[in-house]
């Protein structure tokens, strides 16, 4: 597949998606359940991972990042279980707390399915073989909250605590039971936030609109980009620098977690 090179970001490529991919949700779901008995479906479950591997090799990619839509459908099931690692995005709200409990049940089910699927003769001998799952949990990224005096506003702080509790008490034990956790020392060495938080990213506010217009990350915006001078720029610059620091720490943690 031909990828789009991101202007100004050397060695960063985008693999174009397509709204029509959603139309494959049903056929993929059927294939993942019936491919052993219906030979015509056997190439579908392994085709997604095969395409991604071919594309990654073509561009000599160090990392392939898949941004999935929220949901528990067949496409997400396939892409998660054929990945090497998973990062779970969350927001400090009641819905994310509930979602963590749901994922603690669903991800182990997906992984167990993938392990059985990889052993099926029909899928292992397909033109696009379904790979042995090798998934590990890297952590959680919390986003979309407001800051007050440099800290999450009190309304969000409560849900930060509830998310951390749900992750530690419910999600991690379920993932450890399914053998998709990294060794504890990996998380310690990465100096995670709150145990298993890779990063906490507050709202970008008006900077996100400028970021999209200029087609560059928020943390790379300049004074000329935001068109602010004097006191306004002095107030904006610390936010941009804080976002750069946040993303730098997140990248360092991912490298430590995925490295040898």
Automatic annotation (TrEMBL):
Domain AAA stretches: 10-108
Pfam families on file: AAA_31 (PF13614)
Stored InterPro entries: AAA_dom, DNA_Partitioning_ATPase, P-loop_NTPase
The protein's name in its UniProt record: Regulatory protein cII (Partial)
Protein species of origin: Frankia alni (strain DSM 45986 / CECT 9034 / ACN14a)
């Amino acid at each position: 597949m031909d990828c789009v090179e991101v202007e100004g970001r050397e060695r960063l490529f985008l693999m174009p998606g397509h709204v029509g991919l959603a139309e494959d949700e049903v056929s993929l779901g059927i294939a993942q359940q019936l491919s052993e008995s219906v030979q015509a479906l056997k190439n579908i479950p392994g085709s997604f991972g095969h395409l991604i591997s071919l594309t990654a090799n073509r561009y000599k990619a160090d990392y392939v990042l898949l941004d999935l839509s929220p949901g528990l459908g067949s496409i997400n099931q396939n892409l998660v279980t054929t990945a090497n690692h998973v990062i779970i995005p969350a927001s400090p709200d009641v819905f994310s707390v509930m979602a963590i409990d749901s994922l603690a049940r669903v991800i182990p089910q997906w992984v167990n399915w993938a392990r059985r699927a990889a052993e099926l003769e029909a899928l292992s001998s397909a033109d696009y073989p379904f790979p042995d799952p090798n998934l590990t949990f890297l952590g959680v990224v919390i986003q979309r909250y407001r800051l007050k005096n440099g800290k999450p506003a009190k309304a969000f702080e409560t849900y930060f605590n509830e998310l951390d509790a749900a992750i530690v008490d419910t999600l991690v034990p379920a993932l450890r039971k399914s053998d998709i956790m990294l060794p504890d020392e990996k998380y310690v060495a990465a100096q995670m936030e709150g145990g298993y938080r890779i990063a906490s990213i507050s709202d970008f506010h008006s900077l996100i609109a400028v970021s999209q217009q200029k087609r560059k990350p928020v943390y790379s915006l300049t004074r000329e980009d935001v068109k602010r001078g004097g006191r306004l720029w002095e107030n904006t610059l610390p936010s941009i620098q804080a976002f750069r620091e946040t993303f730098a720490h997140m990248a360092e943690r991912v490298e430590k977690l995925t490295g040898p």
